[in-house]
Amino acid sequence: MPPPTSRFPLPTSETRPRLTVAVTGLNATDSPGPGVAVIRALRETTDFDLRIIGLSYEALEPGIYLRELVDKTYQLPYPSAGTAALLARLAHIREREAVAVLIPNFDAELFNFIKLAPELRALGIHTFLPTLEQLEARDKLNLSAFGAAHGFGTPASRPLHSAFELTAAAEVLGWPLVLKGRYYDAAVVHSLAQAEQAFGRLSGLWGVPLIAQQFVAGQEINIAGLGDGHGRALSVVPMRKLTITDRGKAWAGITLEDEALLALARRFAEATRWRGGFELELIRTAADELMILEINPRFPAWIYLTAAAGQNQPAALLRLALGLPVPTMEDYAVGKMFVRYAWDLITDHTEFQQVAALGEL
Amino acid sequence: MKLKPNIATSEAGFIFNPATGDSFAANPLAADILARAKAGLDAAAIKADILTRYDVAPGQLEKDWDDLLAQLRDFNLLDGSGKWEAGSEEQAMGKAK
């Protein structure tokens, strides 16, 4: 007698459909891009047998050399090269790889990928991204107006086009002041001298305008979410940073149980009809008020914690990109922690040369 | 004293607040008190038990008790007013049934 078989057998690598997914953000450094964490979460999907294509910008992005996670990597032109150069490169890659889904993970590249979404679709590459209007609305420059329009608490802020505007900004916003780059990086400054120094550093790295934001004291909380584009948050996982690097990045964190945080994220997805992954950076003041400091239009670098806690947001986004149904996820493990670590990955100069010279590995 | 219902405590004295991610280490006596409070004993019963088991004057116990409550309140671990409340006892008795 043959052994009994389940009506709904779990898919195995032999039965799961093969799918090729391209992912950016392989810079798993001390200020990490989310790509490696996204791939780690994707690898846990039971829906597909995945081939992962890494998309890098620089030859020393660690994810390129994590061969157990990334099957093949191609370099991309920098976002400043524009959409035509990006499309040409992706078309070249598409001729070699059956990329079905592409998940961009950098703020600075999103504009180009959103603009190219129809062309990518014509190439057979699916994405699941916010609209340009959504991207613009949550921009750091527009955060205060966004908060006012939707009833979210946000710190007062103003754009800075030159260091001469620092004094006026400090008069309005008070000291200390938070200076932020348009896409990345920030500094808390306590005096005009510190502010001028930080302005020089941040504008040199990221250009202008910078954003001067009122400093708000309290407990930092982050929320990773996934919006379905119709007003529903399909997954919401709040996390508190337990260890923060000198660059302000989480080096350890823990999932929280707090209905107010879940409600805030759901309200954000509803108000914006957010499409795709997002991260809310919040602060809870001593008066128990929740203020949104920043809205990131993509998954955060700690996104694997959502999978570890029971809500695999990258795997759910994969399904959304392919038009497959995704139920709203409710439960997750509270008190689930991550502790990041540094690891010296060993590779060979021939591999490095191949990436640097040929743009692929 | 009524701990917030979602506060997790361990026999080793580890206290975890899942709403804030804060964790604390209690000394053995504080851990014992919290365990008894979670089990539903009221303040009078716990204090009476401490007086029988430890060589401590009632006045000193009251002072230390207030200090403990103040710390728990500061750490945002107490439910409601932060005072000792009846009710947790009923919950525990309900569990025992």
UniProtKB/TrEMBL annotation, chain A:
Gene3D superfamilies: 3.40.50.20, ATP-grasp fold, B domain
Keywords, in A-Z order: ATP-binding, Nucleotide-binding
Boundaries of every ATP-grasp domain copy: 144-322
Protein name: ATP-grasp domain-containing protein
Originating organism: Hymenobacter negativus
High-level lineage: Bacteria, Pseudomonadati, Bacteroidota, Cytophagia, Cytophagales
TrEMBL record, chain B:
InterPro entries: PQQD
Superkingdom of origin: Bacteria
One matching Pfam family: PqqD
Protein name listed in UniProt: PqqD family protein
Native species: Hymenobacter negativus
